[in-house]
Specification:
Helix content is 55%, strand content 12%. By secondary structure, it is α+β, with helices and mostly antiparallel strands. Helix 1 runs antiparallel to helix 2. The longest helix is centred in the middle third of the chain and has 30 residues.
Length: 138
């Protein structure tokens, strides 16, 4: 069977396959992500996975023993935060390529104003369920 409808179905199927392949690539890129930061003074390294979970910490020398516990804790928190920032930046760039029309960073960081998003996408209705006059003639 050939014809315009068949051509449209074939194009839609090919597009679906391309999108599926892109999603598999994104999933693999995110699953394989590993991000390492070395603390100042090269005391230790921390590694997080693509979700930002701490997966490894290595002390590079015994010098950490000479640092006050509060200072060492602050260094750990800072290094882990930097590694998590790297993981988030990687995820953002990966998803931005896949979803270029969406505010990916706001979605992933939880700062997206859904109300504003819907206000922009859906015209307001008046009390009778009609679009305001200026929206109908815009």
């Amino acid at each position: 069977m050939t014809g315009p409808m068949n051509d449209r179905v074939e194009r839609a199927y090919a597009d679906l396959n391309r999108r599926r392949e892109s999603l598999v690539e994104v999933q693999q890129a995110l699953a394989d992500g590993s991000f390492t930061v070395t603390a100042k003074k090269r005391l230790f390294t921390v590694t997080v996975n693509s979700r930002g979970d701490l997966t490894e910490m290595k002390f590079l020398s015994g010098q950490y023993r000479t640092i006050a516990p509060a200072a060492l804790a602050e260094m750990l928190v800072t290094a882990i935060g930097e590694a998590r920032d790297l993981a988030l930046a990687h995820a953002l760039s990966t998803f931005q390529g896949l979803l270029p029309d969406l505010p990916v960073e706001q979605i992933m960081t939880g700062t997206l104003d859904l109300g504003a998003l819907f206000d922009d996408a859906v015209p307001r209705m008046d009390e009778d369920g009609r679009e305001p006059r200026d929206a109908r003639h815009a």
